Structures are given as C-alpha cells and as structure tokens.
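Run: sequence + 6-O-phosphono-beta-D-fructofuranose -> complex structure.
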Amino acid sequence: MKKIAVLTSGGDSPGMNAAIRAVVRKANFHGVEVMGIFQGYEGFIAGNMEKLDLGSVGGIIQRGGTKLFSARCPKFKEAQYQLQGIENMREAGVGGLVVIGGDGSYRGAMELTERGFPCVGIPATIDNDVPGTEYTIGFDTALNTVIESIDKIRDTATSHENTFIVEVMGRDAGDIALWAGLAAGAESILIPEEEYNIDEIISRIERGVARGKRHSIIIVAEGVMPGSDLAKIIKEKTGIETRVSVLGHIQRGGSPTARDRVLAGLFGAKAVEVLLEGRGGRAVGIKNHEVIDYDLKEAYENNHKADLSLYTLSKELSI
Ligand code: ADP
Ligand code: F6P
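>> structure
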C-alpha cells in the first residue's frame, strides 16, 4: 500500500486534528502518502480530497474541530454510493482508509472493508461510547470543559442559594454526566443507563439545605430528559428556585487536553500500522493501558457500558 486516505465522520471531537496529524506523520515515516478526504463520507463518495504532506498537518495538534471537516451522510448507507466512493479512491491509487469517528462511522468503514476496500477505525467522540475501547478521543477534553463550567455555575449558585440543573450531552451514554458529576462534586447525576428516583434527588437537596449547604448541583444527561423539565418538577415539589444551564455544543469544542492529544497520537500510529499490515476491518482502542486493535464489528454490535461503579460512588460521596 503506497497511498492511504483519512477522513473524520459523525460528531466532531477535540483531538481529531491531532489524530489526523499522527496518521499523516506515521504513514510518511513509512514512506506512504496520505490523502485527506473532506466532510466524511460525503467527500469519500465525491472523491473530494487533497494530499496531506508533513507541513500540512503542522500547527493543528492543539486545535479543536477537524481540519478535514465532518459530516453526517445518511446516503452512505446505500451500496451504490459506497461503490462510487471506492471507484474514486481506486482511480486515485488509494489502497485503504483510516476512519476517525464513532460507532456509526465504523459501520460505514466495515461495509467498505467487506466490499474489498480495507478500513481501520479510530474512536473519536466526546460521548466515550465506542464498545471495545475504554476511552475515545475528545472525552477527556469535553469533561474538562464541563467541569470548568460547573465550577463557575457553583460560584453563582452558592452566592444566590440556588439549585442548578446542568444539562450535558449524551443521548444514550451517561459517561460525560457520570465523570463530570463525580469530578465536580454534583449532588445528583441522571444518566440514560439508570432509572432515576425523583424523591431521592429531592431528599438530597433537602438534606443539603438542612445542613447549611448553599447550593445543589444536579447533572442530567440530555438523553434522560431536558434540564428544563427536571427543573420544573423540582420547583413544583420543593418550591426551591431551580435554574438550568444547557452546556450544548461548547462541550464539542476547544483545544484538546494532553490526554486526548496523546491518545490521538497512539491511535493514529496504531491505525496506520494495522492498515499497512493489510489488516482491514479493525478498530484501534485502549484497554488496561495497552493500545489494541480489534474487529470493527465488535464496536457496533455490542452495547457500550458506562462504568456504573462510578454511579454508586457518586451517591456515596454526595451524601
Ligand atoms: P458517529 O460516527 O459519531 O457514531 P453517526 O452515527 O452519525 O456518527 O454516523 C456517521 C456517519 O457514518 C453517517 O452519517 C453515515 O454516513 C455513516 N454510517 C452510519 N451508519 C451506517 C451504516 N449502517 N452503513 C453505512 N454507513 C453508515
Ligand atoms: O455524538 C456526539 C454528540 O455531541 C452527542 O453527545 C450529542 O447527542 C450529539 O452529538 C449532538 O449531535 P448534533 O450536533 O448533530 O445535534
């Protein structure tokens, strides 16, 4: 394989740029040329790409977002578009692809591999919800953004004796809510993986008030319910003024943390090694501090499991 391509797909995450850089530098180290495909599978179908040389990935390791742009491309599920893209790649002499994205993007990568065009996946999503790897690129940065915001909210919540609901991202996965809630000392955390008990949440608030606490911070993952709905329930049941902050897309931006940059370097290098060994249909990941590769299908045929021991711990630490 003398030429490979790289694309970023699905929701962007901080550290995608660092991963692109690692792929380009590692491939060049082995004498392999890299094409950067723009806008995920949209660009793959259209053959919209340009050569990424060593200099073209300079100065991006610290940047959030993705230099290659990202897209959700529903039509890529159809065979005709996959085949069209493969034809474009073959015409350009591209022999394999590194897909940086989440489990949805992995499905596309597997279909391409099954059609004879080898792909390797790098997990990049703030949700940390790719089965088979303990961490995904962008999760750590998003967490740090969230806890910085919660710390600020806590300042004003304390001054005004407010209860604050902070709604964070995570439609199906509670990792952001869970880790950020633990790191910021939230009173209650609501995640999609666990049933919540409104009476328990309220009694935590009331216990806090009784022992002189001047604020309560409750983290709710967007997949559970909108923060505004939860605030309404609490206000109705307790009469306590309850404010809401929806952090939204600020969680997806910003300069990647050291941890995400290092992860991007490790994953980018491993993905190139695997692809150059001619092993398509693989995903890279990290488990017990070891960088691994595994069957792409494992990543989307299994369900992601949040570490629920953290959920139990958060309840113990916020009594
Ligand atoms: P993520 O990769 O972050 O999980 P999505 O689930 O939105 O994001 O998937 C990103 C893109 O991957 C989709 O827009 C589509 O182009 C492609 N994709 C998702 N599912 C499939 C599938 N079953 N077959 C082919 N391509 C898919
Ligand atoms: O998958 C990343 C993510 O940020 C989720 O946490 C969130 O639910 C979703 O993407 C939001 O997607 P969009 O920006 O398309 O609304």
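>> summary
Residues 142-252 form a domain with the Rossmann fold fold (CATH 3.40.50.460). The first strand starts at residue 3 and ends at 8.
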